[in-house]
Amino acid sequence: EGGKIRHYRWEVKYEYKSPDCYKKLVISINGRTPGPTIEAEQNDTVVVELKNSLLTENVAIHWHGIRQIGTPWFDGTEGVTQCPILPGDTFVYKFVVDRPGTYLYHAHYGMPREAGLYGLIRVALPPGVSEPFSYDYDRSIILNDWYHKSTYEQATGLSSIPFGWVGEPQSLLIHGKGSFNCSTPGIQSGLCNATNPECSPYVLTVVPGKTYRLRIASLTALSALSFQIEGHNMTVVETDGHYVEPFVVKNLFIYSGETYSVLITADQDPSRNYWAVTNVVSRNSTTPNGLAIFNYYPNHPKRSPPTVPPAGPVWNDVDSRLAQSLAIRARQGYIHPPPQTSDRVIVMLNTQNRINGHVRWSVNNVSFNLPHTPYLIALKHKLGHVFDQTPPPDGYDFVNYDIFIQQPNVNATFSNSIYRLAFNSTVDIILQNANTMNPNNSETHPWHLHGHDFWVMGHGEGKFDMYSDPQKYNLVDPIMKNTVAVQPYGWTAMRFRADNPGVWAFHCHIESHFYMGMGVVFEEGIDKVGELPTSIMGCGDTRGGTFHKP
Ligand SMILES: O=C1O[C@H]([C@@H](O)CO)C(O)=C1O
Fold first, then answer.
1. The domain that contains 227 carries what CATH number?
2. 355 CA → ligand 1 middle, Å
3. pLDDT score, position 109
């Protein structure tokens, strides 16, 4: 049964903005960053007519968490599912939002996501169907981190010798607003204005006694975050479009690419306002905390709370983060039971490496680079020669590799080869974290899968044991998600059904890490993909619509 059409017309362009009081070039949609929120009901068709008004830069937009069943060509992943949208061109995305929940969209070409090209997708239940929890109001916020350097400077540093690391972000944004300290030494006068209204703190106004569903999404470039509202507990009820068996937290850990819904009751002293705070975890960061105002009506929305903002958990408290991950289970009555066994297990060792002097990230010592001709078109039209044909490895040297130490041999190889999955098979992915090239250092990586939700089967510390660890999998009520983190020196096991014909990226959602090769691509059921729209073509070997056969 067909839903409504939700039609959007967007123009993407550069503009000067001061989201954290510091003026810089941002990429906006219809003049805004975050971009407009897509509001739809389950089974509606979303149509976005996207005009690229960047003068010299390509764009593509990924609809994060939307599975694109039957429309794999509209996943918006440059190099995987489409050619980039050229400056001056208009591209029409058209897809069905088949499940209620909280999703995202963002640029998926180069690194422009972190210049502001992102927003939310909210999919409501159809009329007459109710949620398994109740609330008075429904609100949403996007959490982000923010750099002052352009994405060009950052990307160039990452691919240079010597390596130029992007470093810690200058500020944290809550729904597009942050506050950089304009009296920081070295800041050019005129570039930073602490009284610019663009950077006044974001205000969430609440009526005393009411319960709010707050949808919280993270689109950080780098940072793992903790979010809390001073003096208020939060009950977690949804993540990535799936209902969670409710549990109460004081602070929520959230990784780039994840969404959560929490319930918050405005049940504290109503004569004052409270701080909403984000702070960086998992990195020993210098970035100041992000602040917003949780405003009890009718107090003035700009009145600062009378208290010092809470500091949040310490950056290296891995146990608390792991505890939250372990607490997340599918809600009773809404459990999608996982297949009890899998057909294939792929272990993915996450390492930092060096190739010809370049710093890279790798999976099983293979560092990913995108081909210029998108896989979807190449496979459908049998242009086999446009990417490497040797399949990437399903594992690493389990016996000899020590995940706790700096690798004795850091050299890796480049590849743009893909994992080809048997259609309808059940696949297990074990994300195995390890030490980076720095001593005593392992980072958190949030991994995002396109085109599917997966079951989160388990999380653990140390080296995954093929024999004993699968015994601890949650085969009863695992949550389904599209993004999951692997903690430092830990492992995360996920399971999915390769049942969506197409070609799908799976990658670390840290912008710089994907840019540096931390990703893979899966193909399944390519013979079941329908005729491709010519609008996705025009680059590499697809140019001019005439296909060169090898
Ligand atoms: O990719 C990265 O590079 C730096 C650092 O490892 C460079 O030494 C860092 O923190 C990353 O996440």
1. 2.60.40.420
2. 15
3. 85
